[in-house]
Amino acid sequence: MAPKPTNTDTVYFAVTDQWGNGASFINSVYGGFGSAIIPKHTGFALQNCDAGFSLLAGHPNVLQPRKRPYHTIISSMLTNPVDNPLHTVYGVMGGFMQRQGHVQVLLNMLVFKFNPQAALDAPGSVSALGRLSREKC
């Protein structure tokens, strides 16, 4: 029996089919019960990931037109630059390390030729709050 997950607020999956179509999907309620809003007859809570955005003018994460506030929900699809077919669908979970994790997994697959599982399992590093630490993506 697998151990019980310690953090269950985020779900990620990637799928492809025989025709080269793909989907990369991530959903997270961010904290606690998310927004605490459960749409009728659905059984799931809506997320509150935009809790990190700000309405204060001048704030680095202010919500305004033509600005992309920092966010941690990232799902990825990669195409071949030569002829544009789908190459890879992938994603990582992990809050504020996701941008760094995506780059590390991508480099592991493209540069080091790791398969997707090996790319995820490989040690990585995370830079946050002025500290550098090592962990898996």
Residues in helix, %: 10-25%
Strand order of the largest sheet: 1-2
Number of strands: 6
Q: How far is the first residue's CA from the last residue's CA?
A: 23 Å
Average per-residue pLDDT, rounded, comes to: 80
How do the SSEs run, as a string of H and E? EEEEHHEE
Task: Tell me the fraction of residues in β-strands, as a range.
Answer: 25-35%
Which structural category do the helix and sheet elements fall into?
alpha+beta
* Poorly predicted runs: none
Shape: globular
Helical region count? 2
Q: Give the radius of gyration.
A: 17 Å
* Largest β-sheet summary: 2 strands, antiparallel
What does this structure look like?
The chain is α+β, with helices and mostly antiparallel strands. Helices cover 14% and strands 26% of the residues. The chain contains two helices and six strands. It has helices at residues 98-110, 116-121, and strands at 10-16, 22-28, 76-79, 86-90, 123-128, 131-136. The longest helix has 13 residues, at 98-110. It is globular. The relative contact order is 0.13. The model has no long low-confidence stretch (mean pLDDT 80).
